[in-house]
TrEMBL record:
This is CP4-6 prophage. GO terms for molecular function: nucleic acid binding. Residues 140-305 form the Integrase catalytic domain. One of its GO terms (biological process) is DNA integration. SUPFAM superfamilies: Homeodomain-like, Ribonuclease H-like. Coiled coil: none annotated. Pfam families: HTH_28, rve. InterPro entries: Homeodomain-like_sf, InsJ-like_HTH, Integrase_cat-core, RNaseH-like_sf, RNaseH_sf. It comes from Haemophilus haemolyticus M19501.
Length: 396
């Protein structure tokens, strides 16, 4: 006879009982041959006497009643909400549960994961290669309205075969989504109109972070565009991320991932905007964020104290600068030669400030456009991907 084999326990129990029932062996011989203890042998002999060979299977060790078990209605609620929001994980669903049922005891995060996994509603995460952090970050974002982020979430076709360009604007600190506006193009006029609506409703931020695409930036000196000039006029500092580095606007890009996962093309701009408005409400009021202590953006955001009036104040460049007025053609006259800056700056004063031997910095208000090199007699555009407010004495 062979010893007890744990990986085939049922078969070994049958062999043991058959040997015992044959009455050819003593219990002591069977203990030794099957390498089991006396209590184990007695247990299976008694089980066979009571239930026959069917009684040799392992009985469930699950208690008949567990006082700490999650109530079934909570399990059902989590599963139902997961089916409605398949891209939400257990943490966000449990945070939503707390807001809906503040008097009920919230299950642990691990319990929520287990409930969803048992229901077959958990998808394994794809591993992504981590980007190295930028060594020169932008201005600190420690409060609402310190920095807003803006971008277009690509483009997609509506059911009527018209392209839709979603304009998205968020507050970097609270993750509050100000707008998700479906536009037919990326021209500056409707974007300015949307920003003006937001400024009137929420006030002015101190800076706005964007990529280098239109209408946020241009190929003009200092990347200035009609939109960014307007921001500068209002005392808002444009921040442009380094080309091909969307991770520098990571919080906004994370929102775009959620939008992409939820996106459902509609048959008209009106219907699509209704969908965007629903997404915005859910994102701000229902979806919690671990980066803000698992609160919702609406719980963390408050309007800016910088009120928007629409009035553009004159700018004082101070002393020790040379002022030039930009012509309608976008050109200026400097040291006997004509140089092109940008037609966006037509009729506006710009300042030449001495910086080093033969080098002049060129400013529009507090915004550094570029520099003039007297030796080369050239104007070079400024690259301000990482420039900090405290690095520029003219920045607000």
């Amino acid at each position: 006879m062979i010893p007890w084999i744990e990986t085939d326990a049922m078969q070994q129990r049958v062999l043991f009982l058959n040997a015992w029932l044959s009455q050819r062996y003593t219990k002591t011989e069977l203990y030794q041959q099957f390498n089991i203890s006396r209590p184990t042998a007695d247990k299976w002999i008694k089980r066979h006497e009571q239930l026959g060979f069917e009684g040799l299977t392992e009985l469930s060790r699950k208690p008949h009643h567990s006082p700490n078990a999650t109530p079934q209605w909570i399990c059902d609620w989590l599963i139902s909400e997961k089916l409605k929001r398949p891209h939400w994980g257990a943490k966000k669903l449990l945070d939503s549960f707390t807001r809906h049922f503040p008097e009920a005891k919230k299950p642990a995060d691990s319990t929520g994961d287990l409930i969803l996994a048992r229901a077959g509603l958990v998808q394994p995460r794809k591993t992504k290669r981590r980007m190295s952090a930028d060594t020169q970050p932008f201005g600190e974002c420690t409060a609402p309205n310190a920095t807003w982020s803006a971008d277009f979430k690509g483009k997609f076709l509506l059911s009527n075969q018209k392209f839709c360009y979603p304009l998205t604007i968020t507050d970097n600190f609270s993750r509050f989504l100000f707008c998700c506006k479906g536009l037919p193009n990326t021209k500056s006029a409707p974007v300015i109109a949307e920003f003006e609506r937001l400024f009137e409703q929420f006030g002015l931020p101190y800076s706005i972070r964007t990529d280098n695409g239109s209408p946020f930036a241009s190929q003009a000196l200092g990347g200035i565009s009609k939109l960014s000039k307007w921001w500068i006029d209002l005392g808002i500092r444009p921040e442009r991320i380094k080309p091909s580095h969307p991770e520098q606007n990571g919080r906004h890009e994370r929102m775009h991932r959620s939008l992409k996962a939820a996106l459902q093309p509609q048959n008209s701009f009106e219907a699509q905007q209704t969908f965007f408005n629903q997404f915005l409400r859910e994102y701000n009021e229902e979806r919690s964020h671990e980066g803000i202590g698992r609160k919702t953006p609406a719980e963390c955001y408050e309007p800016s104290k910088r009120i928007y009036t629409g009035h553009i104040e004159p700018y004082d460049y101070g002393d020790n600068v040379e002022i030039r007025k930009v012509k309608l053609s976008g050109e200026i006259k400097w040291q006997g030669k004509t140089y092109y800056l940008s037609q966006v700056l037509a009729n506006e004063p710009v300042a030449f400030e001495p910086y080093a031997d033969g080098i002049w910095h060129i400013y529009y208000r507090f915004h550094l456009l570029g520099s003039f090199d007297a030796k080369e007699m050239k104007i070079k555009s400024a690259t301000l991907w990482h420039r900090q407010p405290n690095e520029c004495k003219r920045c607000l």
